[in-house]
Amino acid sequence: MTGTAGPGGALHTPCSGPSLWRGGDLADREEWTLRLSPHHLAELDTALWEARGRDLTLLKLTAADFPLPTLAGELKRIAGTLEHGRGFAIVKGLPVEQLGESAASMVFWGLGQHLGRPVPQNADGHMLGHVRDTGRSLTDPATRGYQTRAALPFHTDGADLLALLCLRAPRTGGRTSLVSAAAVHNAVLSLCPDLAERMYRPYCFDRRQEHPPEEPPYTAAPLAARLPGGALSMRYNRCYLESAQRFPQVPRLEPADLELFDLIDDVAGSPQCRLDIDLQVGDLLLLNTHTIMHAREQFEDHDQPELKRHLLRLWLNVPHRPSTGGARGGVTPRDVIRPRNTASQAGTNPRRLPT
């Protein structure tokens, strides 16, 4: 672990900078939203057509295979905001219903290639994730939150960037909430400095059986780390922290640890700190998992399988970013999705995106 703070160092210093924000200050503003224009959609159409012509599997498709003459500049600006700014953005207006799942997956992958390097999301090496209710329960240690319809408290994911593309929305519920990790850190530091010190201690996280056989079933990392220059990197998932206790070799959580978790949850979920977002069909949410914690409320799905909530997910790592031990390693990518060229497979005309 690099960049951790010891007593008397950055540990007692509040975070500052553009990654420090409060949800109430951003709720009615639009600067974190990019609405795709007809010109952007035309570029995506051309890139999709060219990518299909190369007949590459999804894993082999690079940014060079998905050229975006002007939209790439917008994505570069967003990447800067994710890394050095408020830490999140939304791209609106992707015509996923007209594209169909196959073409939407390729567009999603192509956009992701302009932002970072995709990494595996589970022990099977899947690079393109599907977020939908499978009927499973978090009481099963082999189940992860994205496979359920349950409420997911504020947490971080295991890569530098998280990308979520909404293909279908639920019947009710499912609202996403974001919070600045720096704001949570500062609140804990202000309210209870003694508990704040515990954020820099190592804790064990359950890997929920998503690990190679030769690796341990849990990882150890502090909740908070300060990178060179003082930037904060947060890693938090209370469900995984508590379920790691099932392993006898994992140190036992102390009452003060549970008090810290309660405080983090209370601060993150407060109306003053969190920003609530209703993801619409065609919305692409992008966030820096080091600086943003996210949550999802419970949802009720449609009865018809073809209407059920469905999001695509990418985990992306950013080159040259200092490691904080959060990304999953040692897993071989295995997705071999090949572009499809027929209108019937894509769900619409294979060339034209609606503008």
In short:
This protein has helices at 23-26, 38-54, 71-84, 96-99, 101-113, 181-191, 193-198, 238-243, 255-269, 343-346, and strands spanning 33-35, 88-92, 117-118, 129-131, 152-155, 161-168, 172-173, 176-180, 202-206, 218-222, 224-226, 232-234, 275-277, 284-288, 292-296, 299-300, 310-317.
Q: What is the global morphology?
A: globular
Element pattern in H and E = HEHHEHHEEEEEEHHEEEEHHEEEEEH
- SS strand fraction: 15-25%
Sheet with most strands: 7 strands, mixed
Mean model confidence by pLDDT: 86
What is the radius of gyration?
A: 20 Å
**Total beta-strand segments:** 17
Span of the ends, CA to CA: 47 Å
Helical percent range?
25-40%
Helix/strand class: alpha+beta
Which segments are poorly predicted (pLDDT under 50) over 5 or more consecutive residues? 1-8, 325-352
**Number of separate helices:** 10
Describe what you observe in this structure:
The chain has 355 residues and is an alpha+beta fold. Helix content is 26%, strand content 20%. The strands form five sheets. Strands 1, 2, 3, 4, 6, 14 and 17 form a seven-stranded mixed β-sheet that branches. A four-stranded antiparallel β-sheet has the order 5-15-8-13. A two-stranded antiparallel sheet has the order 7-16. Helix 2 packs across helix 5 and helix 6 crosses helix 9. It starts with 22 loop residues before the first helix and ends in a 9-residue tail after the last helix.
